[in-house]
Amino acid sequence: MHLTGYSMLLLLLLLAAITPFLMMGISQIVQVKYPTRLKYTTYESGMTPFGDSHIQFDVKFYMYALLFILFDIETVFLFPWAVAFERLTQSLGLFPIVEMFIFIGILMLGLVYAWKRDALRWQ
């Protein structure tokens, strides 16, 4: 029996879906368990831990992290576009330029929205 086309793809997707659960199950079965008090303490880069490990972070940290990731992803999309810019414009005309301006415009709208909502102000 030969697997071709979609049947091979389905088999690979099935294997990809099963493999993490299979690996976690095997690790649960074969792991060595020696629970000690030291294993349940907070680790702080080799220093003596102080305080509780369950502290609340301010939402501002998350906002800055989200904005950083947003503009980091923007760079990931812009760099390949800039590298292939000349070849894209020769084959597709103005479409890549218009498409990138729409992408940058959407990101600028998000930045302006965050700016208006004082998400960039550290208080």
Produce a short descriptive summary.
The chain is mainly α and 123 residues long. It is built from 4 helices and no strands.
Structure description:
With 123 residues, this protein is an all-alpha fold. The protein contains 4 helices and no strands. The mean pLDDT is 86.
- The helix count comes to 4
Mean pLDDT: 86
Low-confidence stretches: none
| Main sheet properties | none
Pattern of helices and strands: HHHH
Number of strands: 0
Keywords:
flat, 123 residues, 65% helix, single chain, 4 helices, mainly alpha
Secondary structure topology:
Blueprint: H1 6-30, H2 59-83, H3 85-92, H4 95-116
